[in-house]
Every structure is written in C-alpha cells, then in structure tokens.
C-alpha cells in the first residue's frame, strides 16, 4: 500500500523590515557621521541578536516585539561574534575585534527568573578578534576562540556573579568554529578539526590531512 505523502507547507521569506528599521544606518559622533554596519547575527526562538560595527548589540525580543540595545563601556569597536543561549536564564555572549568578550544575563518577566541585567567580562586573555563562541547547555561554561588560535574557557557562576577564565588550547591558525557537548569541545581552524576532551585535556584530530 502506497504511503500517504505529508502535506507540503509553503513559507515566504522576506526582509525583516521591522527589525532593520529599528537599527540606525548612521550615528553622529561629534562632527562626524558614521555608517553602521551589521557584523554578527544569532537567533533562537525568543531573540534575534545583531552585532554592529559601532560596538552596539541590538537584541530583538520576538515575543514582545521590542528592540533593546547593549554596549561595551569605553572604546567603540566592532562586534565580531554573538551567541545566544536559552536555559534557566537567557544569556548572550558577545565578542569584539580587539578580543573583548562579555556575557549579558538578560532580564526575564517570568517568576523565579533573573530580574536585573548583569554583565560578566572575560578579562585580558584574548588579544585579537573573536571568531567563535560556544555555550554549554546549562550556561555554566563558555568557550571563545580568536583569529590567532587561542581558545579560552570561562566558568560562570550566575548566582554568585563570578566569571573565571583560563586559556585551555592554542592552535597555530585561526579558529573558525566551536561547538561543545558532554565534556567534548569541537574545534575547527583554518588548518584542521580536533576534538578537545575538557576533563582529560587531551586532543584528538579528525582526519589526517591538513586543510588546503
């Protein structure tokens, strides 16, 4: 007997004007007019996070149809990577062109959830552009990689407001992708892909030939 084909669902793809119109195309800085470029993007079921060339993170809440803005104090520099996570609290990690990494713990209206915006900084280890970020599913671990091959592990204690960071791996070429699951960190660089076992602190290469 022939199986019944599942119904086909048509979807329309169109520019997100409601999102783009909430982000300025230019800002005024003194006597200069500076063009705003969109430099990083991540999405989940609750938020759309957009990084910009002026160091501003635009965070659009899909349920409330509201746009919020977050930035780094001090130097205005381009955001190069953003990574969202929804666990008990909503978190967003942000990396910049100079190697700064910050985590924003977002405010939630749900009972028992975080009621005050908090920020955690990964201080002083990265010295070059952030190219990859990866969360653990519970939001207690964040891994960050840069274009010089450094990978930093940050342990977050959201209840105590503490972020401790350390260098865990250094590759000879730029990091292009990170993914973490069950104590194993997948690391892809311009030259190779490896599995880093965080408990044993051992590395296993995927394949034998370097990338061309």
Automatic annotation (TrEMBL):
It comes from Psilopogon haemacephalus (coppersmith barbet). GO terms for cellular component: cytoplasm. It comes from the Eukaryota. This is TCPR2 protein. One of its GO terms (biological process) is protein exit from endoplasmic reticulum. Pfam families: WD40. InterPro entries: WD40/YVTN_repeat-like_dom_sf, WD40_repeat_dom_sf, WD40_rpt.
């Amino acid at each position: 007997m022939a199986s019944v084909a599942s119904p086909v669902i048509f979807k329309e793809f169109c520019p997100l004007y409601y999102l783009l119109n909430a982000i300025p195309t230019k800002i005024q800085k003194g006597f200069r007019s500076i063009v705003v470029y969109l430099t990083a993007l991540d999405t989940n079921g609750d938020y759309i996070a957009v990084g910009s060339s002026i160091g501003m993170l635009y965070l659009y809440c899909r349920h409330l149809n509201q746009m919020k803005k977050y930035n780094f104090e001090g130097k205005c520099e381009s955001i190069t990577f953003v990574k969202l996570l929804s666990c008990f609290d909503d978190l967003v990690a942000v990396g910049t062109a100079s190697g700064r990494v910050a985590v924003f713990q977002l405010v939630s209206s749900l009972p028992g959830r975080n009621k005050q915006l908090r920020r955690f900084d990964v201080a002083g280890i990265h010295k070059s552009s952030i190219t990859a970020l990866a969360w653990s599913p519970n939001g207690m671990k964040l891994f960050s990689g840069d274009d010089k091959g450094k990978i930093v592990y940050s342990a977050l204690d959201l209840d105590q407001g503490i972020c401790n960071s350390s260098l865990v791996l250094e590759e000879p070429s730029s990091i292009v992708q990170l993914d973490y699951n069950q104590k194993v960190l997948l690391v892809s660089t311009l030259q190779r892909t490896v599995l880093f076992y965080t408990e044993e602190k051992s590395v296993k290469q995927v394949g034998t030939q370097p990338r061309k």
